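so my prof wants the structure for this chain in the tokens format not the other one, which i didnt know existed until like an hour ago. anyway here's the sequence
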Amino acid sequence: MTAQAAPAAKEANEYIAGGEPAQNRAVVQLEFTQNGGLARPAPSRSKSSQPESHQMISAPPLRLKPFDAADVPFFTSMATDPRVTKYVGDGRTWDQATIAEKTNNALRDAPLNELGVARWFTAHRDDQPVGVFVSTRRESAVEIGYWVPPERWGQGIAGAMIDAGLEIIPRLFNTNILIAHVDPNNAASARVLTRRGFHTTVRENGLDRYIWQVGPFAGR
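here's what i got, hopefully its the right format
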């Protein structure tokens, strides 16, 4: 794959996903360590030091933070809800063993070039978790996904998390290709991806494969 510039040592990032109503924008506060890993979230800057666009937000933004052990119960509540898992994998809810396997992998501090390594992020609004954005290293790309609890559907949270992910993930994993797999019956999820430049390519194991990349679309 074509590599992008490696992240600068301890570069603090604060990003508002554009193109959405103010209340749906996502603020990302993360630090990248010298080897490309994630440090703990950087302290918030004072309002006076923020760009003007940050001061124009009239509703609480989404803040993405690295997933940690305290977020496991929130994720479990979604992974065991049939409304949420309807379009995930085989459509069945996850058992505790699967949840433990996936969350433990997300919490591992493994090298980002290792196949299968995951980095998850929890979206917060008013200090309450409202979604989880996931990313996983595959052979030729990084696969992304997103989880939103039913009571938060229709609030633009998935789109805001993807906007933030498009800013974070290529630099974090040093990649220019992202993919996502979507159930063909999940029109809402397909729509949120295509609006952000993802293209559908092939169907794999009953799921449509979407691809996004920096630079000209390769159609792979």
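also thought this was worth mentioning. The chain is about 25% helix and 30% strand.
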